[in-house]
Amino acid sequence: MISSLSTISLLLSLCSAVISVDAFFQKLLLPGDVSGPRSIAFDSTGKGFYTGVYGGKILKYTPETGFVDFVYMTTLSKSSLCHGIVGPLLLGFCGRPAGIALNEKTGDLYVADAALGLHVVSPAGGLAVKIADSVDGKPIKNLDGLDVDPTTGVVYFTSLTSNSYPVNRDWPLEDVTGTLYKYDPSTKVVTIVMEGLFRSTGCAVSSNGSFVLVSQLAGHDIKRYWIKGPKAGSSEDFNILINSPESIRRIGSTEKFWVVSAMSYSYGVNQSAVVLDSNGRESRDLQGVSIWEENGDNLVSEVNESNGSLYIGTFTGNYVGIYKLCKP
Ligand SMILES: *[C@@H]1O[C@H](CO)[C@@H](O)[C@H](O)[C@H]1NC(C)=O
Ligand SMILES: *[C@@H]1O[C@H](CO)[C@@H](O)[C@H](O)[C@H]1NC(C)=O
Ligand SMILES: *[C@@H]1O[C@H](CO)[C@@H](O)[C@H](O)[C@H]1NC(C)=O
Ligand SMILES: *[C@@H]1O[C@H](CO)[C@@H](O)[C@H](O)[C@H]1NC(C)=O
What we know:
Blueprint: E1 7-12, E2 17-20, E3 25-29, E4 40-42, E5 49-53, E6 57-62, E7 66-72, H1 91-94, E8 97-102, E9 109-113, E10 117-121, E11 126-127, E12 129-132, E13 134-135, E14 138-139, E15 143-148, E16 155-159, E17 178-184, E18 189-197, E19 200-205, E20 211-216, E21 221-226, E22 235-239, E23 245-250, E24 257-265, E25 268-276, E26 287-293, E27 300-306, E28 309-314, E29 319-324
Parallel strand pairs: 7-11
Antiparallel strand pairs: 1-2, 1-26, 3-29, 4-5, 5-6, 6-7, 8-9, 9-10, 10-12, 13-14, 15-16, 16-17, 17-18, 19-20, 20-21, 21-22, 23-24, 24-25, 25-26, 27-28, 28-29
Family: Belongs to the strictosidine synthase family.
GO molecular function, one term: hydrolase activity
Signal peptide: 1-23
């Protein structure tokens, strides 16, 4: 069922030409029948990363150890019942870590679990601790993107839609109930930041904490919500040119972001990943990646940059992809 990314062309302006990337691309295979490394968080020492997979686990990767179990979303996630579970089956029992990000100061790992709500994991790993699965008595559902404000530790996370739909039923187009939430660890309160979003997928906080971005997959835009400064509390369009934007990741301490987008066609999905600057424009030193996946069943969920490479997460694949970037 799971196919690999079939053709990938890497367009590197700094490399002066379109380059075949076979030589640059490496797959880190997940152990056993584990799949779906959807979101990636690098550890603060730069020696490894974490990724959440189907069945409710978060794995830790280092070059020395390979992938090892690091977090269980529930006590069942450890059991054979959840092992290798793919898709929505047992989601509510096993969990499904979607967006993950570290608070680099405390080492706490925050998890937006698609089915189980917002969780946190101590630097020692183990069982994730639930922070919230409702706000003011209303359940928070279908969590997706998550980021931590590097200046305050406040956690921002998105819900694709506040409705529930039967498994395998297409979500109605008119459902515009996505939400951007925030969790303040100092008050332990979750509040709503933006409502009425059209499939809010990714979110990312800028490196100085002045704004948070939220992508609307079906709204075909990225919004900027101001956290600080004269426009604090208001939002505006950040980029309206990227079709179906999904995840957004801040690149380290820069004011730049990797954005993954997807256009569906009846015969497949063409995806691309681009760098946006703090004005929402495609970066001039652009290293765009276009990804053409014939079968469309191994879509790229996320791209972030570390140590001169792109780390690529997928919704259902059995590996994390790594591209060596071409630098001058
Ligand atoms: C970072 O990149 C260098 C050069 O490609 C490589 O030798 C090193 O192992 C990488 N570090 C990690 C933690 O992956
Ligand atoms: C993206 O990668 C950079 C390292 O290059 C890291 O500092 C940053 O925290 C990552 N973003 C997220 C949301 O993990
Ligand atoms: C998808 O991308 C590939 C490679 O960049 C390109 O050859 C193909 O024409 C694109 N397909 C569509 C439908 O845009
Ligand atoms: C944060 O960075 C932005 C550039 O992205 C800059 O315009 C703004 O002045 C900075 N804000 C603060 C509070 O430093």
